[in-house]
Amino acid sequence: MPSTLEEAFLQKNPKKKLVIGVAIDGSNISDKALTTACGFYNAARGDKLVILHVSDSSKTFLPRHLQPKHLESQYVDKAHSLKARAEWACREKGQGSSTCQTLMALAQEQHVDLLVVGSFGRKGERVDLLGTVSDYSLREGHSSVAIVRSSAGTSTPGSHHYMFATDGSRAAAVAFLTLCYQLVKPGDRVLLVSCSYEHQPASGPDFFKNYTAVAEKLKILLETLSWRVERAQTVSTGLLQLVGIKEVDTLVCGIAGYSQKKLGSVSDEITHHALCNTIVIKDAHEVLSHQFNSAGARGISDAILPAGTPRQQLKV
Q1: Residue 92 — very low, low, confident or very high, per pLDDT cuts 50/70/90?
Q2: Which residue ranges does the chain devote to CATH 3.40.50.620?
Q3: How many CB atoms lie within 10 A of CB 204?
Q4: CATH code at 161-289
Q5: pTM as predicted
Q6: Which of 36, 81, 110, 173 has its CA 20 to 30 A from that of 226?
């Protein structure tokens, strides 16, 4: 990781306040997602915590405790009990739009930097599969995504044990800087891992040098490890084994692609198969660049115009 990359990161993110969005639907995993989101919240920095909910008035069968007004009171009060000041943002699912699309539009409208979602919703959990919302958030959302698992232990701020997987890429470096500057709190530990196959050269001290310098500057408890994987295994399988060995509660990685075609195989596998919580960090500046470079007129108008703005036919 070049030191110039850290300088560029700090120029783009000078003492940035974090906007944390947490998607809730009244399920048990929503409670855990809110607790996790409150753990990232830093009041002294001026962070903003937004509770996001997509309502659907066509579901007249929903009981009272799953109605928006009740959910607002329940989750705002719960955030307060966790020493976080939360705002409520609710949007009705529009005709022809999915819950996922509506949630992503709501998160973008709130300028969410980190979206916290449960790995499943009210429909229940399935082994080795993510729920529709969490999978869509990973592939199509503009913000970084934290996926909360029912199988993950509950950690309090200052007791997190993060494992960060790096391949030496720019995306990994930006993700590591984001983790260190915006998410890690005093007392948290970070295990920095470079994973390679047995027949390949192992990463030496020079590979970790700039990462270590960042951690020392920020007084972060950092351990580095060059992890060797058998040829018969995938890199993601090796990383998931290490999670259990090191008793990690949150596995973190960075990605450079934003769509089904470009989500990396390692990030794809670990988010689907990890038993711990996972965080996939996206470079917001790259997201916007990718969005405008690949979008047509309608895509660009979707990004610029406020939600629900009527579009007039473009004349060339």
Answers
A1: very high
A2: 3-148, 161-289
A3: 10
A4: 3.40.50.620
A5: 0.84
A6: 36
